[in-house]
Structures are given as C-alpha cells and as structure tokens.
Amino acid sequence: MVVGIIFMFAEGFTVSFAFFFAGLGALATALACYFYPFIAESVTRQLLLFSAMSLVSLLLLRPRVMRLLYRKETRLDGRKAFIGKRAKALTDIRMNGIETGKVLFDGTEWSATQSEDSPGIVAGSTVEIVQMEGLTLHVRLVHSEYK
Predict the structure, then answer these.
(1) What confidence tens digit (pLDDT) does each residue in 97-112 have?
(2) Is 108 left (phi over 0), alpha (psi -120 to 50) or beta?
C-alpha cells in the first residue's frame, strides 16, 4: 500500500504517467492481499499481480488520461477565426468596396467593405464576414433591416 502511495506521489514530478499506473498496480495488489490472503502468502503471486495490474491499467487507461490532459486545441489564426461569423452593419456600405463602412463585431467596431457578390448593405443589416484584409473586414449581406 505504501509503495502505491509513493508511486502516485512520484508521478507529481513526472509527465509520463508511468509511476501513476505502477501505483495503481501496487494499490490493487495491496487490496487483493487484504481480501485474498492466499495472494499475500507468496511474493511471486504478488509480483505477478502487481505486474499484470500495472500493465493492464497502463494499456487501458493511459491513452485516455493523456487525451484528457493534453488535448490539442484547434486554434485558428486571427483572420480565420473571423470568417463565417456575423456582424451588424453600423453604416451603409457601398457596393464593390468603393467606400468602406462600419460594422460591429464581437463588441468592436471594424471598417468593412462589401464583397462583390453581395447586394447593397444598409445600416442595421446583419452581415457575414467572408474575408479579412489588414484591419478591414469584407462582408456580405445576410439579412437586411429594410425590405
């Protein structure tokens, strides 16, 4: 039992989780010895049980633990995180990007131009961000405030 606790404590100083599963094997062996005295009578049985429990817990649980702790977060760069998101037009935006307007996206006011495939955008309309160039968003109309 003490060996299991020592292994689990030692795991705090590593990142491999090998000691943790050896600790689980030691704890399982200690519990088995307590409940099944015939295992405690033989050191060979204890070592076999310890090895088997450590190996089984390592093979079955380690991949899950590693996935939980070291998830790869899919991070988008700044530009890609904007694409497809919706914003609100604060001003009219003229066609073909001749004149920029303003949109409100995520609580921040941005300069915006209209994408080529979008009809005229009036203030109050919902727009979708299709591209980001510098600090200017290229948007297309999703829902017009005026019909």
Answers:
(1) 567 889 999 888 999 9
(2) beta
